[in-house]
Amino acid sequence: MLGNLVRSFYIAKKDLKEYYLKPGTMSWGVVFPIAFTLAFLIRRGGIAAWLAPGLISMAIFFSSTSMSAVSIVFERKVGSFERLLLFPVSYTCIALGKSLSSFLFGILSSLTTVIIAYMIVPVMPSNLLLFILCIILATFHSSTFGVLLAFLVKDPSQTMTIFNIIRFPMIFLSGIIIPLNSLPLPAKIASIFLPLTYSTEAIRYSYLGTYDFIPPVLSLCITLLSGLAFLLITSVLIEKSIP
Amino acid sequence: MSQCAIEVKGLTKRYGLLVAVDHINFCVRDGEIFGFLGPNGAGKTTTVRMLCGLTRITEGKAYIYGHDVVGEHMFVKSLIGVVPDISNLYYELSCWDNLLFMGEMHGLSKSERIRRAEELLKLFGLWSRRNVLFKNLSKGLKRRLTIAAALMHNPKVLFLDEPTIGLDVMGKRVIWRIVRELNSRGITIFLTTHNIYEAFRLCSRVAIINHGKIVALDTPARLKKLISAEEVLEIEFYPSNPPVNELKRIKGIVDVRYSGSTVRLVVSDPLKALEGLIRYARMNGYSLNMVSLRSADAEEVFINIVGGYSAG
Lengths: 243, 312
Description:
Number of helices of chain B: 11
Helix content of chain A: over 70%
Oligomer: heterodimer
Largest sheet of chain B: 6 strands, mixed
Shape of chain A: globular
Number of strands of chain B: 14
Shape of chain B: elongated
Strand content of chain A: under 5%
Strand order of the largest sheet of chain B: 6-7-8-3-9-10
CATH architecture of the largest domain in chain B: 3-Layer(aba) Sandwich
Radius of gyration of chain B: 23 Å
């Protein structure tokens, strides 16, 4: 067990070395969230405090998922992903390693957004420890989601397109920039099925002490459980990918 | 009889209705270089992938030093090193970092990883390029590093899938030298190739596979003796080479092939064939510029055994 965890860490370390400076990772994982955050916080004045946690959630989501999109796609294209299947490690270890590199990248990237948000909206999180826990869980959850999505994409050349088709609607339906309570009913129902909704609600509660309609305990539990589920589904997909 | 390093019983792979590997059986002895030779699409790579756990086995069993490749796949992966047909190491990592990563994933200690990486880079002539990114290496050097990477954890069996594909003559010779040296250190080598000369030159035994079935398995010398009744007459006619169908009518001639200006005649009875050829040449105004008689070479053995056409 410990051996597998250590090897997951080695996979993550290797991925960070290889892919953190790739254009796709930097542009969608760092530049876009920062630009988006600045645009919204500077423009929105009075509701900036309400927007800040949503934008932090969005930054985590984009940075965590971008890393896996680049690394897994590239490795499958050049054939080096199969190398991982030749090592004496479990498929879960491989899934965890891939998620861990996205997680570490997501944490680093989200810190930038947190700092920018604090500079524009100098409001401390109402519960700092809970806020840190939510950041960690949200990043884990987004990382495993991104890895799963990368494995589901059949044509590697279409990965970024597919990722953005899924990610962008989530921005508008998960409570990041539009309050969930002001969404029309069909959109509200749709938001319940989006994983990003729960991490956004959790971060907002830890930051402002309020939530839209998902209680914090529920949003935290679902964030954690869905993150674990994504990880396990990915390990099953890796096994099933063997012809 | 030495222990089987690799033992395969009734190994089969089906993709729907297509049978890629059809109930093959063989035993690779401990310490030998075993060749797996066949045309494109014969089932060579599929066989290797099943043994390494990259492709599921439809039917049959395979063992590496007695360990089931399916039931004990994690342990088997610690016994084997695999060099796929494409050099698929990590492009953005240096030679040094690629080897260290291999060591990390096989559970080597830090000191062991460093020692082993240095040893292998020097053995493969890559020490001066240890900080060069993999993507910036030439094809031949990429191949060398890929072999080195497969050896980081001191495997007992090394699978080489088309190790010299795409390399020039010098590059091939370097790889052949490395293969012999590794084998002299006790590593069992399973080599797949469609290069007949490579298989016959390097391997102690060769299995020839075609359409997913093993059609012959023996030492190169005995495989040549399989068609030892037939020898090859190489002749150059003057002023030009006669038509194939006329030469085929001559008694003692089994097959006729043109190779540049030389006619290669596979003959069952060299003397009878020569008498017939001389008579034919005199009657039709030809003269014989060059005549040489030799036993069948590797290519002729192979074509004879697989029937002269590729699979699929």
